[in-house]
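Sat 14:20. Reprocessing the chain from the morning session after the first attempt stalled halfway. Input below, unchanged.
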Amino acid sequence: MGFLDKAKGALKELETQLDKAQKAAKDSGISNPEIGKLASYQKNLKVVNKGAEKLGGGHAKAETPSSSTPNTAMQTPASSVAPKTTSVKLPLAIRKEVRDDWDAKIPELEATLSQVLGVAWTIEIDAGAMYLYALETDNMGTAAKTRPGYVLYTYIEKTITNLKEYIVKFGDDGLQELNTVASAHVITMAEATAPTHSYAGCDIHEGALRILFGKTYFGTNIDQATNISNLPVAINEAGKAGGSSETSLDFDARTGMKNDYDPKIANLKAQFEKILAIDSITLDPSFEANYNKLLGIEKQSDLPRNWQKHLGAHTFMYFEALAKSLEDEGFATDDMMQEGLQDVMEKMEIKFEIVDALQKGTYSETLPEDGVLYIRTVPKYYTSNIRDVGKGLVALL
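Finished this time. Tokens:
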């Protein structure tokens, strides 16, 4: 006989005994309050007995194999997600918050991230390790201590917003550059070690895009970590270190060329052809050679900050200044002057070079050599007195 059957039998026997006791109480003249107590006991017993019968009926067919091992694993409701992104034992309240506000939302974040970047990206962040940083934060009111999952979600949400802004500014080239240098297609987080990222920043490390934060500033300035000021710098530095393209030019230089040189050079070329009365001319910017020249002496010179970004613009300015000087000196309206320049420009080419030293002049020089008209400058004066390029050329012909 099973436990439930024995329990029901005992309850039935007890009910019978109470009936007898109640009758005996009446026959013996026991006070009405005592009889009332017995009646109450009997009523409660009937309720218990009824519940036992229902319980017994509901489990009448249940069987537990005596040879099986009990399953002691915690059962998680299908609608919830157990914390899975932590290597640290968290307090129960924090575990639940991480589960609900972070782990459960990772798939959605990864899907959005992958859609924005055009290829599959994943998120690999140890929520437990981040919580330990949250406990050290200097900001006593920060949500990082009580809602680390929400803070992590906000970091990624802001990163996605910043990535969209980056793509709007740099287009398909910028997107391709990011996916190339961040070849692992993973977002991670880490403590910043460089002083430039005291509060928040980002870099590309071992093929992953890392969101950085100061040791005691987890959860501070979240939107700045990957903003339009920090993200392009991280991508550019990774490109320089890893050689993200077939050219030696970094992303900043290539972007500057695309924005500040390529759209305007065709019209300037046509202007030179009109000034010199020739059918076609070649303008050679020597981008890679000049870039490598400047890069080689970057630490020993006073080059402008972010000179790579302006390589395209400054190169265009040199050609533009020469065209202006040729017009000012009358080449556009004088056949003899046109013929004189054509004689020393047999290759119909103008080339811009950055060299170690000039033959004539201090800031720049414009000299015909071997059928090419050269515009030259030195690193020290690369951005100085550009408007003077080509002046006095007539005296050299």
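Strands lie at 122-123, 186-191, 200-205, 208-213, 282-284, 349-354, 364-369, 372-377.
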